[in-house]
């Protein structure tokens, strides 16, 4: 029996090695995707260009503008002279934010008079606008603190915040676990479902069926190479995440890898299940794209936070999307460095899903053609 | 014990009757041919017998096992070559063969004597990928793969379709040799000229078996007067003969016309009749029927 299994795995490896498309999906996509997410999808910003409409034009206002520039996040585009010029910068697209400094800035500032600085941002990109406004507000607050050091203001509430586990709010900490969950699911599920439906399309499944091979052996033989290669993928992404994007790995590496393995097996079961339903490679491809890619991207909390989803989607996302649990495990083990006890529920759920899917796949595997 | 028995098998696809009450048996070491045009139901019958499809009605056995209940036993004992080339195109000849040997729990070396005659012909190309082989070589490889585990019954679904004339002759020579080793072979073909190479044949059309017998018997049992007529004006002659009251059927066969008359005539009578009807250069002769003549005679007229 083991000999047959070995021959099957060998044959499958030949298929993979000789098919450029499979190789690209297997190794090209994960690397490109991690690098893309890492460098392109970033909520941090650098060198946002701003305009300033300075009505005061006094010493303090110039100091404030310098203070904001010195942070390294902003560069001054233009100093405006009238309110009418504000919009033109936005319209041309070379300004992200306009700061308006009121008249008599110096005297009001040191005279403890109420004073308002207006920040105008481009709301067509809400995320960016929000971040810019928050950043600028902080800079203005720190400017105020520096300048009024001696003069204690008893009425001022100071908020001091600290971001645990990701103090610098580096987005890689979020996307590396998310990307691992995403890539493993898509690659494992899509490739296995494609590999099995390909045999159906080419008619080789017909010959395999008219042979003494038990269905379980056919499935295992086809899936094992993909399990191995997907696991290598997982390690590859972890290495890139750790060394290129400096995502920490505080918890146990063994626990992390075991969880990856479990998740890979789950994804493969999903792929087998899809292939028992799909007749052609096209159907299998569509099913894994629509049925897996979108929910994993959107409903797992990877890109959009759970709390901002409507309740129905929250429920769907937290119950049926395996990536949700896996991302939870990854973040817990990598960033918070917790042990097995803290993620045992998530592991149990993933294990349960795997068993159900495998059972379904085996039950649906057809011993005949129809 | 018969290698294959088929009793009253019926299969419907949607509303279309693919097989209608089909029955026959194939003995051990017999080369049995299913002769019929595309869409006659040959492949469906193969799939039912190789346990890939379930019949709606009827029963059958292969190598002594009922086709539904003991499908696992059957799958160990049969070799199957589907109508479409179904090996791994991205594996070489060698790799395909050793893969199929392994999944049947044997090795190429163990059963080499069985495939030797066929394999030596493709061995020079053993490193070549199966997808890059010519049609004839593909079929030889497929036959090797179907034979590698010494099956008791061999199912070959149109093995010579798309294969050149020389390779077809070679292929049938191989089947004759295999037969002598006690392997029962069920083979289908749309080529009528291959029918005479079988021990017995079943003529099949629209899911129904029209006739079963040995081709020689079929030919000698054919009692209708059959003439082959050659003329320079074949088409005009065909139209003329169609409407004559002595004609039972007339069909073009290559350059000649095959005419079946409804009562016996002498060749000279036919030739004389044609001459006075304006076909002065036609010649006629009585001929032995081919399987095609018999098939066309028993098949329903195409409407």
TrEMBL record, chain A:
Keywords recorded for this protein, A-Z: Cell membrane, Membrane, Transmembrane, Transmembrane helix, Transport
Domain ABC transmembrane type-2: 141-368
InterPro entries: ABC-2_transporter_component (IPR051449), ABC2_TM (IPR013525), ABC2_TM_bact-type (IPR047817)
Span of the signal peptide: none
Pfam families: ABC2_membrane_3 (PF12698)
Keyword Transmembrane helix: yes
Main location: membrane
Subcellular location(s) of the protein: Cell membrane
Transmembrane spans: 21-41, 172-196, 216-243, 249-274, 286-306, 312-330, 342-362
Annotated membrane topology: Multi-pass membrane protein
Gene3D superfamilies (UniProt xref): abc type-2 transporter like domain
Stored PANTHER family: MEMBRANE COMPONENT OF ABC TRANSPORTER YHHJ-RELATED, MULTIDRUG ABC TRANSPORTER PERMEASE YBHS-RELATED
Family according to the record: Belongs to the ABC-2 integral membrane protein family.
Protein name: ABC transporter permease
Species assigned in the record: Flavivirga aquimarina
Lineage of the organism: Bacteria, Pseudomonadati, Bacteroidota, Flavobacteriia, Flavobacteriales
UniProtKB/TrEMBL annotation, chain B:
Keywords for the protein's UniProt record, in alphabetical order: ATP-binding, Nucleotide-binding
GO molecular function: ATP binding
Secretion signal, residue range per the UniProt entry: none
Top-rank lineage group of the source organism: Bacteria
InterPro entries reported for this sequence: AAA+_ATPase (IPR003593), ABC_transporter-like_ATP-bd (IPR003439), ABC_transporter-like_CS (IPR017871), P-loop_NTPase (IPR027417)
Pfam family, one: ABC_tran
Start and end residues of each ABC transporter domain: 4-231
Protein name: ABC transporter ATP-binding protein
């Amino acid at each position: 029996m083991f000999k047959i299994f070995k021959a099957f795995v060998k044959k499958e490896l030949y298929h993979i090695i000789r098919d450029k498309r499979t190789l690209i999906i297997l190794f090209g996509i994960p690397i490109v995707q991690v690098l893309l997410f890492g460098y392109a999808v970033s909520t941090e910003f650098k060198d946002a260009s701003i305009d300033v409409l300075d009505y005061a034009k006094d010493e303090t206002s110039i100091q404030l503008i310098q203070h904001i520039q010195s942070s390294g996040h902003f560069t001054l585009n233009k100093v405006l002279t009238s309110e009418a010029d504000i919009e033109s910068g936005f319209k041309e697209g070379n300004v992200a934010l306009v700061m308006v400094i009121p008249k008599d800035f110096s005297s009001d500032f040191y005279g403890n008079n109420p004073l308002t600085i207006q920040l105008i941002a481009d709301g067509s990109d809400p995320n960016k606008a929000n971040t810019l406004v928050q950043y600028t507000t902080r800079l203005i607050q720190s400017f105020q603190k520096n300048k009024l050091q001696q003069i204690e203001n008893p009425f001022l509430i100071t908020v001091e915040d600290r971001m645990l586990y990701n103090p610098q709010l580096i987005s890689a900490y979020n996307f590396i676990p998310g990307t691992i969950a995403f890539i493993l699911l898509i690659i494992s599920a899509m490739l296995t479902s494609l590999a099995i439906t390909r045999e159906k399309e080419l008619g080789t499944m017909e010959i395999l069926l008219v042979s003494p091979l038990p269905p379980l052996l056919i499935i295992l033989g086809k899936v094992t190479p993909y399990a191995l290669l997907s696991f290598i993928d997982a390690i590859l992404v972890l290495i890139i995440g750790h060394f290129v994007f400096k995502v920490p790995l505080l918890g146990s590496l063994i626990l992390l890898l075991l969880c990856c393995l479990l998740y890979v097996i789950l994804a493969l079961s999903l792929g087998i299940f899809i292939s028992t339903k799909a007749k052609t490679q096209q159907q299998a491809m569509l099913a894994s794209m629509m049925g897996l890619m979108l929910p994993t991207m959107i409903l797992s909390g990877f890109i959009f936070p759970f709390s901002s989803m409507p309740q129905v989607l929250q429920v769907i996302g937290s119950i049926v999307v395996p990536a949700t649990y896996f991302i939870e495990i990854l973040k817990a083990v990598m960033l918070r460095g917790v042990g097995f006890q803290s993620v045992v529920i998530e592991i149990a759920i993933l294990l349960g899903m795997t068993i159900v899917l495998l059972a379904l796949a085996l039950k649906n595997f057809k011993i005949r053609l129809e | 014990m018969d290698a294959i028995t088929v009793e009253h098998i019926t299969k419907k696809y949607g509303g279309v009757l693919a097989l209608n009450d089909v029955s026959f048996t194939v003995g051990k070491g017999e080369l049995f041919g299913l002769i019929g045009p595309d869409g006659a139901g040959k492949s469906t019958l193969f799939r039912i017998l190789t346990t890939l499809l379930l019949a709606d009605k009827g029963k059958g056995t292969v190598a002594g096992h009922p086709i539904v209940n003991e499908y696992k036993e059957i799958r160990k004992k049969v070799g199957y070559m589907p109508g479409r080339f179904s090996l791994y195109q991205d594996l070489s000849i060698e790799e395909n063969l050793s893969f199929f040997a392994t999944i049947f729990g044997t090795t190429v070396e163990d059963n080499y004597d069985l495939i030797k005659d066929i394999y030596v012909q493709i061995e020079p190309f053993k490193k070549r990928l199966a997808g890059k082989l010519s049609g004839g070589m593909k079929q030889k490889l497929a036959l090797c793969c179907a034979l590698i585990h010494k099956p008791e019954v061999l199912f070959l679904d149109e093995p010579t379709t798309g294969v050149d004339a020389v390779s077809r002759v070679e292929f049938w020579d191989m089947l004759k040799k295999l037969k002598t080793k006690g392997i029962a072979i069920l083979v289908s073909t749309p080529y009528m000229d291959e029918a005479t190479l079988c021990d017995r044949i079943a003529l099949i059309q629209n899911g129904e078996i029209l006739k079963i017998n040995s081709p020689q018997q079929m030919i000698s049992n054919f009692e209708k007067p059959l003439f082959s007529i050659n003329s320079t004006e074949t088409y005009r002659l065909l139209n003329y003969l169609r409407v004559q009251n002595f004609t039972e059927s007339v069909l073009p066969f290559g350059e000649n016309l095959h005419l079946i008359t409804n009562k016996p005539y002498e060749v000279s009578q036919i030739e004389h009749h044609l001459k006075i009807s304006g076909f002065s250069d036609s010649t006629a002769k009585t001929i032995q029927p081919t399987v095609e003549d018999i098939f066309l005679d028993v098949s329903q007229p195409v409407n």
